[in-house]
Design goal:
13 helices, three-stranded mixed β-sheet, CBS-domain
Length: 368
């Protein structure tokens, strides 16, 4: 999901990203306005109003997240809502708690519907000639009316028990208490896909292009969650000893930067554990070695290594280590230690490669 998005800003240290689905939606709206002979600026304005409705919803959910002490890294905006990425594994675990999950789920629909009511009252007072209940409710022809109903629809859609919508997440939380996380996610995702197809069919029969698009986005979201379930089943059952690199290069604190660069030339590693007398004391990257040589000339590895690193045990799950890597900014290597002895390393490149192969292996096993 993150790979198909781009950053649009940062608020209070949280990166805001816009998914490419919004670009697709803008293209569809502009195609519609062109076919209907409507000014393109009206189509762009309608698109911006949807973006505003999503932003209002996510601001409310972010405030709830702050209230419950959740640490967010970024918020991914989609036409049907937003997805949080947590900065720490502890934050993600807390967000999965029933009370927190329910609060996050109801905050979005409540604020969208409340915002729609306030907008409707302001429009009725300032422009009584605008008929808010005349159909079509969402159209580039009547932007004020559309602004109100976009918020209403976004709020109501997220009350459907279709995963990954808000109510669907609460439903999954209820299922997980009796069936476990894997079965709960599969059931909620399957229900989400069924409801998405129903929305798509209803949009064709009415006809309603907005309902068709909503069904499309819900279906894609549910499909992604279903694929994520397979991915999760891999990362939580595979251990570090199964995928760690056991043949790797290490540097010593007494190595000069020129020596370290020479060693890195003969290694495929981008990052190296640094040891002193056999004990792990730091991590350094090839890029840092090059930058230090260019800026300050030759020196010692000890002077540029970072001491901000995390370690893993051979029996730690792949999922735990992956969360450690993604939670640490700039962290791309996790040493695997047994006692005080380093027995392997896991790099981000190695991890992503291993997870892809393992997921494919599980898929082939299921098909067989």
């Amino acid at each position: 999901m993150r790979g198909w998005s781009f950053p649009i800003g940062r608020i209070m240290g949280v990166e805001i990203r816009l998914h490419m689905f919004f670009a697709l939606l803008l293209a569809l709206v502009l195609l519609y306005t062109s076919m209907m002979g409507i000014a393109s600026i009206r189509g762009v304005a309608l698109w911006l109003f949807l973006l505003m409705a999503v932003a209002v919803r996510e601001i409310a959910r972010s405030l709830v997240a702050v209230y419950y002490g959740l640490e967010l890294r970024n918020i991914l905006l989609l036409p049907i809502g937003g997805l949080f990425t947590h900065a720490t594994p502890e934050s993600a675990e807390r967000a999965a708690e029933g009370r927190v999950q329910t609060a996050l789920a109801i905050a979005g629909p409540i604020i969208n519907i409340t915002f729609a009511v306030v907008l409707g009252m302001l429009i009725a007072g300032a422009a009584p000639g605008v008929s808010l209940f005349q159909r079509p409710w969402v159209t580039p022809h009547y932007l004020l009316r559309s602004m109100v109903w976009l918020n209403v629809f976004l709020g109501l859609i997220n009350l459907l028990p279709a995963y990954p919508l808000d109510a669907g997440r609460v439903l999954r939380g209820g299922f997980s208490r009796s069936r476990g996380t894997v079965q709960a996610t599969r059931a909620a995702s399957g229900l989400g896909q069924i409801l998405a197809l129903a929305m798509f069919a209803a949009g064709i029969l009415l006809p309603s292009p907005w309902l068709i698009m909503a069904g499309f986005f819900v279906f894609i979201g549910a499909q992604m969650e279903d694929q994520g379930l397979l991915f999760q089943s891999v990362v939580d059952t595979v251990h570090m000893r199964d995928i760690m690199l056991t043949e790797f290069s290490m540097l010593s604190t007494s190595d000069t930067l020129e020596d370290a660069l020479h060693k890195s030339v003969h290694s495929l590693q981008d990052d190296f554990p640094v040891v002193r007398g056999g004990n792990l004391v730091g991590v350094v990257s090839r890029q840092n070695i090059l930058e230090a040589l260019r800026a300050e000339g030759n020196g010692y590895v000890q002077g540029i290594m970072t001491k901000a690193f995390q370690i893993a045990q051979p029996d730690d799950s792949l999922g735990t280590t992956f969360r450690r890597i993604t939670a640490g900014r700039g962290l791309s290597l996790v040493p695997v230690v047994e006692g005080e002895r380093i027995v392997g390393i896991v790099t981000l490149q190695n991890l992503m490669h291993s997870m892809g192969l393992l997921a494919e292996s599980r898929k082939l096993q299921q098909q067989a």
